[in-house]
Amino acid sequence: MAASRQAELHAEDYAGPADHGPRDGDGDGDVAGDREAPHDEKIAAADESVGAPPRSVQEQLSQALAELLARAAELRSKDAEVALLKADADALRAEVGELRAKAAEAEEQRVEADELRLVRTKLEESENDLLRLRTETEQVDGKITLEAADFGCTKLLIAASVLLTSGVDRVVASSVSSPTPFPRELSTGAPRGATSSCSPEVAEAVLSFFASAARSLHDRFARYKEVDEATLRHFVEHGKNAAPESSEKEKALILRRLQDDNQDDNSWSRLRGTVREPVSYFKRVDEDSNTWGKAEGVVDASAPDVLAWLWHSCTYERIFRHEKSSSGGLLKMELDVPGTRSKVMVVSTKMPGAISNRVFANWWTWAKEQNGDLVAAFTPHEDFGLGAEKQIVDTALEAEKRSVLGRLRGFYRIKTLSPNVCRVTFVLQGNLGGSFTKQAMAWALKHSLGMVKSLQDKYMRNGAKVDAEIRGAFPAPPLRRSLTSEQDALVARCLTLEKGAEGSNVVAAVGINSAAAQARAVKGSWVELKSISPFVSMSMAYTEPEGNESSIALGKAKATLDCSAKEAFAYQFASCGREKTRISREVGDRARFVSKEHTAHDFEWVLVKKMSFPLTNREFLNRFLSFKEQTGDLVIAFGALPDSTKIDYGADLKVVRGKGMGVYRFKPINNDAQCEVAFVQNLDAGGFVPERVTVAKIPQALRAVNDMQELFQRDDAIDGAKTSELASIINTSEQPYLSDEDKLIDEVGARFASLPAFKKLDSPDCFVHMSSAFKEGSSTMIGRATTMSRENMMVHVQDGGLDRNLKKINDHQNIYHVVYDLSIPTFLPRQFVSRVVWKWAAGKKELTVVADSVEHTDFPVRKEYLRASGTALYRYKQEADVGGIPQTKVTYTLQLDFGGVIPKRVQNRQGVGQLMYLSKMRKRFDRSLELDGKKRGELVKRIRRHGRDGVEYSEEEEKIVAEGKTWFKAFDGLKSKDVDMRSPQTKGKEVLPYVWDTKSRDKTRPDDLEKEIDEQPNDHNQLVFNKKQTPAAIANRDFLGRMVWKEAEGGGFVVVTVPEESMKRPANKKSVAKSDFVARAKYPSIMRISPTNGNETKLEYAIHPDFGGGVPPIVFNRYMRSNLSRVTTIQEYFTQLRGDHDKADGRALGYRLTYPDEKNKKTPSKAVAHIVKLHKGLSQLSREYPWIVAFLEEVLLGGLHRNKAVSTKLDSLSEAEARKIGKNLPGALRARKQASGGVYQWKNQNPSMVELFEKYPWVEEMVLTMGEELLKNAAWGLWFRVITGSVGSMVDLATDINVILVYFGEEGQEGYGWMMLGMVLANMGLQLGLVLLQNGKMGWGKLLREVLITVSGLKPGVDAMRVVSNAEMHEHHVLDAKMELAFTKCAEMFCESIPGCILQVTALIQGGSGGQMGTKVLSIIVSAITTGMGSAAISYDFDSDPEKRRKLPSFYGYLPDEGNARTIMYVCMVVNSALLLLLRSIGAALLMLADTKIFVAYMAGDHLLYLLQKLVRGDFLHWIPLDGMSGLACSFLERVMVKTLTDFTGVLQFRGAGEMGGAAWLWAMSLALVAPWVAVPVYFGSLTSNPTNVTAIETVLNNTDSNADAGDLQQPDNWELKQSDIWELLSYMTVLWLTAFAVFLGLMKKEYRKTFWSLETGNEWIQSYFLRGREDETKQQVFNFNKRKWKAIEPQVKEWVGRGWMRWERDKPDWFTDHWKASVPVPWVPTKGKADHKRARESERRMSFGGGERKRSIIYAAA
């Protein structure tokens, strides 16, 4: 690779384009081909793996560059005639045209046009320089050299010699390795020959001329990420091992740096405020007063990978990061020292504020220590004594002479923890030069040590996986006999707790209080506690406190873990593992870290536990030891550190020290496949904690065992092994049965067989049939449940309950014990002890399992439980397979007696719940999707065969189909905007079988009482009967309909259903008993199944139901939507079958999650888990990211929470963090008016969501859809926006009306009232004009509606509603919804708020403290604040729109992604606009009162100068696409409005080149701040010089009330305006404005600050859409603007249209509409596209004169 790289591109371009094909790494030498670049084996190997640029493209571009050189050499003529210059310019333009042609040809050869267009643009920019150059140069000579570089790159060298007319020969040169970024600064070599005063600009112009082509080459072949990965991989695999031995000097440097790390931990102090960070930061001061820093953290990468990243500081990634942090332009380079392990790195660092930048030049080397640790050390470069590299380094430092030279020394130690995890220690000492305060040094130290955190962030992986890797590499613990005496003493103290527990009886207790009392009463006994998990047993004992100890609670927990003893031991011993630390932080613990590590199995550990108020946080300091017993048990012992131990937290933590001592013992069982863990702990919480609190916390203190049980839980694997073993026994072994076993089976069978007929029960599961019976003389119900399950009988036997807590008698008999908690207050849990026996019958075709209550000594009656009884009979019968899927009929009969005083009717209801066990079993083994899929596949084959055979349809069938098609025509004349096309992504021949198979399991519903196919004469005709259960008040309904399908013309199918009567299914007569009456309903329908693109299918569904039985149509019309949901059901069915979702699926899933099945009566958040389980894509996502359900639940809850950004990477995200991210979304949505803006802001605040959306784009669409629906439905969403939007404007209007009435009520001030009223009417008139412009072509109905909305004052709220609901822009609308809202606000500010505020301030100054002073001041303040909010909202909404950021990133995007910073900036914008309005109003009022002519002259002059500069720059016409006089009038009005609004409100949006322009906006702000200060002396001077002056305002007032005296008006009673008061008020307001603006500039993204002084014109801005746009979607936007604005680039646009038209016709992009086509001139359209273009223009003409749009609409299902 090149030794030095200077990045030109921005950091966001790091991803770079993908590889465009095979690349040849062979260099071509120079252009003349006089030599060939050498290749070594490393380059050849890298080229083979990575790829190199194609030689043909290099040759073509080299040829083009050579031609350019030849062209430049021809410019030697000394003739200065203008005509010749013009001719040369024309020739150069012609050459540029040839380059355009080459660019078009290159595009056909898969060469992107962007790079060649960049060459063309650079040539055009250099035209003037070249014309000037020809008059100053004699000769230009040069050479282009291409040389092979590492990893498939090519080094490009351009050298040129320019002979100036003054006789000075100056050499210019530059080199670049493609894809190494091209240098930003062009260098000029020293002159050869005599010196001259001639500027080197001419020579640099030549180099710029050539450099544009080199830069284009670089961009074309950029492979940043790929080359970085190849560079680092080569170092890890080859470079590290092939490095030469370290020299003595290098060894000395390593040794010296390692000695700098003082191993005395007491000398290091923790940096303040860093105790909870994932990286530990320390500092110390040595004997020479040098400050050292140290950072230590775990990195999720191998040690060689980390060293490679540290060693290569000039990878593209790090160059881009350096550029981004330093705003570009700062040096970063590295030089390898040949034959050594050393290199020199030179880097410039940007310092904050006014502090000078620093530059560092360091010598680096690396080595591997004997223990395997890798070390990279560095020191100032002068310590090494460079050779040939010194000149390069000195030149680089000379170039940075403005920076202060700093000195750094330190090292990185990289210790391997597992093959892919390491611990990095970074020690650093620096001298930054200059004078630094302690605070600045502390900042610099923390900032410099941040490299470890950068490594963590770069390589961060899933914490649980990293912990597992570390556990796998954890070394085996030592035997106890190898411990030191000190260690053994601690172990002996801990083991006393364990020995005291051996052999102790466990006494049962109920409740915490009774447990504590029993433990105190019976010393040494263990009392059972209620465990937090059924898989973990917990107990406690009481010990007497010693000395100053509080009461001590001794706790014990036991469990069986589904992992090896070593794995569980390693997990628990890693007390600061990734997951444990994360959980600790989430629960709020103040500190958790290892304070000192003696060995890998002996360390000291610190925990500061957060306690609930009013308890003080607890500090625990423990020493942990691990060892292995002779028995093979692994033991962890821990005890408290001495009281004298002090811990440095880097902060003042108020804590109370607690003490703990305990033992973990891990015993291998089942060949170490599992282990038993026993944990005994003696805990003293310290302080004054009540004993009951201590005892109550014991289960939580013991939850470490529960955490391990949950972490290593492998229930499916363990249970599967056991049940497979049991199934094998049942299926293969012959079982001898005892007489009592046979007797039990016969008795239970006979007992249930003798029952009377069972009566059907309502089953919650439509696939499980339930019934009940009562034995004579008994009120206890006997329940029976039957189902057919799609699984082998053996699988069901495994699930029969035989694997629960039991005592095995033999292979076919167990004693089964279970305790049920009834979850009823004051009711005791019920204890069941049953004898369970299984036996084959009927030649192993049916298996019987019986369970009957029994008494057993192993399970005695316990007083804390109540004994219950029950009898159960299971029968499993193998049925014939269906579609290759085994079928088992399961019958479950049950009789229960819960005992106690529970009423029998309550017990009977509980019995139905117990029968649902069969439903759970069925769902566990459900294979409905698979079975339905097989049946659907068979139907597909039959349909295909049906089409091939050409089956004829009968006359009756043809009539049914024809009748059905006529139903669609009934909708043709309707207009509707509620058309919702549902397109399942599957082929029509798969949808038809789904619709046709009416008895599929997916279509079976709980209310289906009966569903049968009565007739099926052929494959396209069937008679279907369906009986439905209805609510109790309505009789049940049945439906009988003939279904016929037929292939439609043009592809697809139609399925028609018509009612039919049949003798087999006669309709019930009303004479039938009411309880048995079933009303006959009719449900005619038609579904059209039409194929679209690819695998998508369009469904159209029309119905005309008649539910019969006298139900009024108004009732079932209300349920029309739910009846139409059949289309949505089909879409969801095929969506849940596929895992490869697209954005359309994402939208469908978003709706599905937001609106779950109404019949489930579940809120959206509670239905998430069920929906995720059903859909294959979501299910796969949840397996990859288990937190997805929790995340979606929080989103759907829609609660507003404080925004807390989560920076964790996607793979490392925990459930708690995912919930936090989900809670952030509603707040972000509320902060934005549109879901797209809210989701955009939210995802950028949470980087894990950016990763998730990049990996699964459909998830972003799903979240966006959920956000849209939340905005519509949430209380803080759509209506909140509408109400606040309306109320804000109406409050302002109300205060204005109130003030108008006040003016009319005060003598002499009626004129103010009339003027205020005129302003309100003017605002209304301007808004009506906007309505006419926007809706003039939409028909009189819609226009009248918009007029009424405007006149009623509701337009701001309605506009806000349209923005929130994403109202689409109609083709005849001039503005989209957001732009219309902005124009409405601008009209209100221009006509009402600004002049009204000026007038009210004038009246206040002139009218003084007359009547209702408070009302007048309140109106002014409300107007200012409302105007400020409107101004800020315009800028905020436009900048945060993701579409605008994407399409014009150079202007939009100044708002940061962090929520708090955005809020502060919004407040600053409101304050600035409100203050500016008040300042300008005061200034304007004073000028008008002094002399109206001055005010008019100032305003008119300011506006005329603004309009004049627009005219001079050719930028007067506005971008709105209006031509002729209307365009001129609109432009004039818009320019005046924007200028006025900017002067008085400072709308930031208007700094854009399309409006004011950056420089003009800044100048307007400057004048706006100065004007009030000038107006004050003018006003008070006029009072002194001409006290009788009558202003225009006074003239109006005098004309209104001729009896008023002007003198009285000017100086009313009790009023005297003092000049000092005005000065003070202006001072406060100006300072506050400047402060708010400074805060705004400080928080905004710094790369956008240049937009405040930009000189770009509106023409250039509009043309940039085309010239800078990379996508056609961006380029096409020029047609949305006034064509005169981009006339200069019309040839390029025309060429682009001609080149892309046919491709757009083929691909149909969203923007390629008839409206857009009609805007393209006819001559620009290719011949093949003229027909479609003519049709589009004709369509637009009809729409323009047809009074509105006529849409064809059909009723569709709406999700």
TrEMBL record:
Matches recorded under SUPFAM superfamilies: Bet v1-like
Basic and acidic residues composition-biased segments: 20-45
Protein name: START domain-containing protein
Residue ranges of the TM segments: 1312-1333, 1464-1489, 1560-1580, 1625-1644
Keyword Glycoprotein part of the UniProt annotation: no
Region (Disordered): 1-58, 174-194
Organism annotation: Tetraparma gracilis
Every START domain range: 978-1126
Listed InterPro entries: START-like_dom_sf, START_lipid-bd_dom, START_lipid_transfer
Keyword RNA-binding: no
Keywords: Coiled coil, Membrane, Transmembrane, Transmembrane helix
Gene3D superfamilies: 3.30.530.20
Coiled-coil positions: 58-143
